Input
Amino acid sequence: AEFADLEQGDRDQGGGGGAAGPLPVVAIVGRPNVGKSTLVNRIIGRREAVVEDVPGVTRDRVTYEASWRGRRFTLVDTGGWDPDATGMGLRIAEQAQVAAELADVIVFVVDATVGVTDADEAVGAVLRRTGKPVILAANKADNPQLELESSVLWSLGLGEPRPVSALHGRGSGDLLDTVLDLLPEAPPEQFGGDRGPRRIALVGKPNVGKSSLLNRLAGEERVLVDPMAGTTRDPVDELIELGGKTWRFIDTAGIRRRERELKGADFYATMRTKAALERAEVAVVLIDASQPLSEQDLRIMSMVADAGRAMVIAFNKWDLLDEERRYDLEREIKRRMTRTPWALRVNISAKTGRNVEKLVPAIERALESWSNRVPTAKLNQFLGELVAATPPPVRGGKQPKILFATQADVEPPRFILFTTGFLEETYRRFIERRIRETYGFDGSPIVISMRIRE
Ligand code: GDP
Ligand code: GDP
Output
């Protein structure tokens, strides 16, 4: 498939709650008229798979939430992706490729009354290469005779053909049983468990109060210095108990050590920050709120976003702020902190202890956003409505269409939009903003990639 990859980090803010966990994805693939929509209807038990077009998307839905024997999954009807009927046949192999990328299990539908066509061969070849589990559905096997004849489909090299009649329901239960057998187990619990203490990088330019905050957090709590695996120099991390949990603070030795007098200290400080972010899941960026926001502060925030880490910004030395400074600070934040407006914010004083207890809830919330996943069906329904109400701007006389979207990853959340043309930056920002408004992600960067079919 010829998709061009484009990436864009998100810079927009939003609110709202989280989303439910991910469901496994089952994609239905096959050339036109083999009965994909009929099979989808059969599986979801409704008559709604074929619906009229809306501007911007091919059908208003290509994904459905389905369940069988109490197990839920997302069903994707690849037949719904292509806007134009002409040339559709040529694109099935391409769709099969896309389906393979996003699905956990693929159901390849072939018309048993027709046998193997060239298009079926082409799709079969793509699917054999993917390594994803493929179920070969021999559809329109309405009677025992056709069931027998479906054995010619062995020639596709995709294992045993499963005779089914989507129209009459014959064999569809067996087919779904096979799907369930191949579905992955529910993903492991994201939080706690055996992933060890969550990892925090405390970063910020010199003198903002990092070691003061560390001392306050460690306070009377038990502090363990943990030697980093694989290095002899620099036993670096500290395990600190906060809010009933143990947290790993990355490279506390670097924070506590006074090396700012040294030549080249800035360079090494930047290296240290980068290395700490590499190992961390969430960054607490400390800023001296009594001083004007500096380029260096902003650069550190950008480093966190670029590293794809969750972020909490702690405005420290709040005890030093008078009313005028507070007013100025808010204006500086509004005007200059435009790259990471989604970061969570806490105003603290490491010296007096003010609001320090609010750090942990903010960190936990940022980590939750960082692991948040929008189910594929929900995402596509949401985008379908969004695009119908506000279609992408026409470009070079053509209206780009969004065929399908999926959240491919978490930590940080990464979305892929499959499109027929380039989406302008402003429009991508618009989508990002609405995703944030609808699904949260406060405290976490999100990445949106476009896969453009040329
Ligand atoms: P799609 O283009 O792959 O989505 O195919 P459709 O679901 O639109 O079906 C194409 C045609 O095949 C329709 O006329 C269906 O009624 C018919 N069809 C689908 N499944 C079966 C089946 O199991 N048996 C028979 N006899 N016809 C079927
Ligand atoms: P680091 O270089 O980021 O580790 O910063 P330090 O923790 O060494 O703090 C630098 C200076 O700021 C020290 O003199 C601290 O006492 C002072 N400081 C740190 N936090 C606060 C605070 O919340 N309020 C005030 N007034 N001073 C602070």
